[in-house]
Amino acid sequence: MTVYIVGSGPGDPELVTLKAKRLIEEAEILIYDRLVHEEILNWVNPECKIIYMGKRDKKLKSSQQIQKEINLTLIKYGHNYRVVRLKGGDPFIFGRGGEEALVCKNAGINFEIIPGISSFYAVPAYAGIPITHRKFNSVFAVLTGCESIKAKSAINWEKLPETIIVLMGVSEIQEISKKLLKVGRKKSTPVAAISWGTTPKQQTKLTTIGNLAEGIEGLEPPTIFVIGSVSKLHEKLNWFERKLEKLKDKKIVIARAKNHTNEDEEILNSYKIKSILMPLIEIVYKEFELPNLNDFDAIVFTSVEGVNQVSQKVDLRTFSGEIFAIGPKTKNYILQNFGLKANIGKKYNSKGLGKHIVQNLDQMSKVLLLRSSAATKTLKNMLSTKFYVSVINVYDVRSLPANPDIIKEADAIFVMSASCAKSLSTLDKKILEKPVIVSIGPETSKYLSIPHLTAKEFTFQGIFNTYLNHIWSEKL
């Protein structure tokens, strides 16, 4: 088989290359580092074995010990599996990708290198700092903090160009500044320190070589330093942090079920957005008789609530047929709680799921559809054209009144289901004129008679991305 040594980019999942994403989705074994964004891990298929091997706690193990373990893991799986070794940034730029490729070569394992966008230029770009500019420089040097101050370092400090980018240098930057001052750099030389670049936590501080101690106070790794006059362009070209500032202290109302936990709050918090849960529906569990699951070729779940209800009556692991789920949330819930693989469509709605089942299940199969009593007929009708379909309503949905006072305070409302849209539409339209209303998909949008946006990806991340694109399209 093959080991793919893949760069995951500087932090923002949207900066991952198309080839890297495809390989992650196809991986049988995924070995990843500390700086890999969690969202990227959601791309793996349910049967992939995920192994964390980041250097999180150097007090317990040295970097050399951890790297040795990584090398042994590559050898262990590389002969028989499709392995993705996922690394932050670019694996061949200060990432030990070359060392790991040699391990594979010496062990007789096929390998490929998939470059990633490197943080040394991407992070300054997100801070509005071009690392080359005709008025300032045409040459730059890239150093790592830990390697550059070693006694046997090959760096000739006097010969370094005016622009220097320092990676992994928070604990060594003071020593680096001393070396630069010693060879004649002025104390007034500008320095930009960029923490958590390309992510919602990005923060840039401008200081000088002579004032580094005070200038970078409060910044934590990962931080990149840009030393030189070009760093001053941050003040004029700081596009990304200005966009983040537009989101700070926004209030977003999430219209969803009362029984639903607000697990997506962390996404909003990372942008310093206040999330407010407004229950517009309540899940009411009901009694129902469940037939023998193994009398069916496939079972279909349209929500996590449906999985919960059925699992109260039977161990899903005893089912030997195909399992289909409405989207990644339900799919992941089934995997995490029962260790079972569920198939999902390319679009996370009734039509997308119906199309996927029709294309992948044998004609005349027996299908059990487990859903809400409030569900539309779309999915049932699609399946009935090719299969024997039995439907069980495993819970009811009860509407709850919307609170006008909460909506008056809102900058945006995320409408998470068609049932919530129905409840929201009962309000006076004047109250709904101020907030930006975003629907999770076309099925939900059908029940909104007020101006709104519709997410292209039918997930919370998709609805949030739609809101971001709207807000950020406005002039900064």
Structure summary:
This protein is α/β, with parallel strands linked by helices and 476 residues long. Helix content is 32%, strand content 22%.
Write up what this structure looks like:
This protein is α/β, with parallel strands linked by helices and about 475 residues long. It folds into four domains: about 1-115, Tetrapyrrole methylase, N-terminal domain (Cobalt-precorrin-4 Transmethylase, domain 1, 3-Layer(aba) Sandwich), CATH 3.40.1010; about 120-245, Tetrapyrrole methylase, C-terminal domain (Methyltransferase, Cobalt-precorrin-4 Transmethylase, Domain 2), CATH 3.30.950; about 250-285 and about 400-470, Rossmann fold; about 285-400, Rossmann fold. The protein has 19 helices and 19 strands. The strands form three sheets. The protein has a nine-stranded mixed beta sheet with strand order 14-13-15-16-12-11-17-18-19, sandwiched between helices. Strands 3-2-4-1-5 form a five-stranded parallel beta sheet, sandwiched between helices. Strands 6-7-10-8-9 form a five-stranded mixed beta sheet. A hairpin with a 7-residue loop joins strand 8 and strand 9. The longest helix has 16 residues, at about 65-80. The two termini are about 50 Å apart. About 40% of the residues are buried. The mean pLDDT is about 90.
Task: Compute the number of strand runs.
Answer: 19
* CATH class assignment of the largest domain: Alpha Beta
Q: Quote the distance from N terminus to C terminus.
A: 50 Å
Could you name the ranges where pLDDT drops below 50 across 5 or more consecutive residues? Answer: none
Coarse shape? flat
Provide the β-strand percentage band.
15-25%
The CATH architecture of the largest domain comes to 2-Layer Sandwich
Number of domains: 4
Look up the CATH topology of the largest domain.
Methyltransferase, Cobalt-precorrin-4 Transmethylase, Domain 2
* Count of discrete alpha- or pi-helical segments spanning 4 or more residues: 19
User: What Rg is obtained from the alpha carbons, in whole angstroms?
Assistant: 26 Å
Write out the strand line-up for the largest beta sheet, numbering strands in chain order. 14-13-15-16-12-11-17-18-19
* SS-derived structural category: alpha/beta
Helix content: 25-40%
Average of the residue pLDDT scores: 92
The CATH superfamily of the largest domain is known as Tetrapyrrole methylase, C-terminal domain
The biggest sheet, with number of strands, parallel, antiparallel or mixed sense and barrel status, is: 9 strands, mixed
